[in-house]
Design goal:
Elements (H helix, E strand, L loop, with lengths): L5 E6 L4 E15 L2 E5 L6 E18 L2 E20 L3 E5 L3 E4 L2 H41 L18
Parallel strand pairs: 1-6
Antiparallel strand pairs: 1-2, 2-3, 2-4, 4-5, 5-6, 5-7
């Protein structure tokens, strides 16, 4: 039974958001689209987009492993790794676990996307400011744009 399950851990820099040692399958999204992971999956490293990671936990019963409860976690991007076909690790800047998929998609993903857009605008503003500063400095360093002090100009007073 152990070979049929995945071990999952979702972490942020400050907390372990979700952990399960009995995952039957997982669904996630990167920039190329949605993908699934089953036990025995090849080793994988991918950058996640702002999305919801969903997985199903195994439910042991007398007949063997049965499909159990589905769980979800909204992630603000991050990195997903699969190793040895049995371990999945997600490292993300921010994550919110919950059982209500619709609420996660409606509330949390909207907030994550808005924050990402605001960060992009701030980075763009900082980039424009740096570029303006470099151009200003270069305008003073160009020999053809330099102006000589009044004492060195033609017709100027010389001591």
């Amino acid at each position: 039974m152990a070979g049929l399950l995945l071990d999952l851990v979702i972490t942020t820099p400050t907390a372990v958001v979700a952990r399960s040692a009995a995952v039957t399958h997982l669904r996630a999204e990167d920039d190329s689209g949605a993908f699934g992971i089953l036990p025995g999956h090849a080793d994988l490293l991918t950058a996640l987009s702002v999305s919801v990671v969903s997985w199903r936990e195994a439910d042991d019963n007398a007949d063997g492993i049965d499909e159990g409860r589905e769980r979800h976690c909204a992630v603000r991007g991050g990195v997903l790794t699969v190793s040895d076909g049995a371990r999945i690790a997600v490292a993300t800047r921010e994550a919110v676990a919950g059982d209500d998929l619709a609420a996660l998609e409606r509330d949390v993903l909207t907030r994550f996307r808005q924050e990402r857009a605001a960060e992009g605008e701030a980075r763009g503003g900082a980039r424009r400011l740096r570029l303006a500063a470099v151009r200003h400095i270069l305008s003073y360093l160009r020999p053809d744009r330099r102006t000589a002090p009044p004492s060195l100009r033609e017709g100027g007073d010389t001591p």
